[in-house]
Amino acid sequence: MKKILFNSPSVVGKELEYIEDVIKERKISGNGKYTKQTQLWFEERYNFRKCLLTTSCTDALEMAAILINIQPGDEVILPSYTFVSTANAFIMRGAKLIFIDSSPYHPGLDEKLLEGLITDKTKAIVVVHYAGVACNMPYIMNLANEKNIYVIEDAAQAIDSFYVNQDGSRIPLGSFGHLAALSFHETKNLNSGEGGMLIINHEPFMKRAEVIWEKGTNRSSFFRGEVDKYGWVDIGSSFLPSELNAAFLYAQLEKITDIQSKRLELWNRYYENLIKKGVDKLVRLPFLPFYATNNAHMFYLVLDELSTRTRLIHLLKSHNILSVFHYISLSTSDFIKYQHPESYKICNFSDYYTDCLLRLPLYYEMTFEDVDRISDIICEFAKEK
Ligand SMILES: *Cc1c(COP(=O)(O)O)cnc(C)c1O
What we know:
The protein is globular, with a radius of gyration of 21 Å. The protein has helices at about 15-25, 35-45, 55-65, 85-90, 115, 135-145, 205-215, 220-225, 245-255, 255-275, 305-320, 335-340, 350-355, 370-385, and strands at about 50-55, 75-80, 95-100, 120-130, 150-155, 160-165, 170, 180-185, 195-200, 300, 355-360. The chain contains 14 helices and eleven strands. Helix 1 runs antiparallel to helix 9, helix 3 (about 55-65) packs parallel to helix 4 and helix 10 (about 255-275) runs parallel beside helix 14 (about 370-385). The strands form three sheets. A seven-stranded mixed β-sheet has the order 1-9-8-5-4-2-3, with helices on both faces. Strands 6-7 form a two-stranded antiparallel sheet. Strands 10-11 form a two-stranded antiparallel ribbon. The protein starts with 14 loop residues before the first helix and ends with a helix. It is of the alpha/beta class. The site of pyridoxal-5'-phosphate (PLP) has 14 residues, from helix 3 and helix 4.
């Protein structure tokens, strides 16, 4: 029985050629040709104001926390159902985390709960476009602007995904918030092993972002000839990746249409297989609000309870197929419970996805036969249950 992995990072074109070029040119540290091309590619394709390539999405979020000047006691609203990096970046700078629950319909945050969580200490709302599915951004931006609160998009999973207006026009995720962060970790649609990007849409952050990125120096201004010497002007860290990573990533960008359409075909195949056999009556399939596009980052099921999910994981495993669950509600994690009890909170829907959501294999090199095999097993399972 052929083994089906949960994920396998795609290698799609000229990755090796560009890495060789970097080695030949002997410009291997960061902010060289490939970094600049990559940043420009995003700025032009998605109309992002300014992009800075980072070593990870985690780093981009840490830069965001510095840029909005988080001070101890500031409150930051964020989902309980997310990856730890969404939270770490802000708690590291002394923020008090205010957790928000997921929607009953999908794992993304329930924006109707937002207003009730805002206080005069709220500094920022961090939204996560779970599975690349847009949060209700116009609603969230209106609320935030009214109350003078920053919005940061954790768009780690949301490359090439959009919010759709009523007239059908599409706005790229990552262009709503004052700041946004993408990930190029090997589990994401496009990857460079480890990698990320900070998107800066808010003009007043642009200069400082570059300084923080360059370890707190004005090195970038110096190389542009804007200042005659470079020195230490702010806090910062080593946030920029090597040209080797940027070269790998740039080769992936050139193939984005291929990657996205292949992923979408696989995703649709799962969906159609399962709908055709009536599995959607027994197991919840991914839900997309009418205003969201699908970037096929993830195909997940929501089972009725933890024991059902555990049985399905074992069944798939017995067929040599790997499936995974993720995100244990941050709001009741040991770290929060013991070290930040002020943020402890039960989030019922977040807990529900923690227990019941299962991610199925989805990656560029998968085949339709793989998807069909997995779908058949799920159909059998759902009917016997
Ligand atoms: C993957 C992911 C991250 C972290 O990305 P890295 O590039 O690995 O740091 C953060 N938030 C979410 C929602 C993610 O899915």
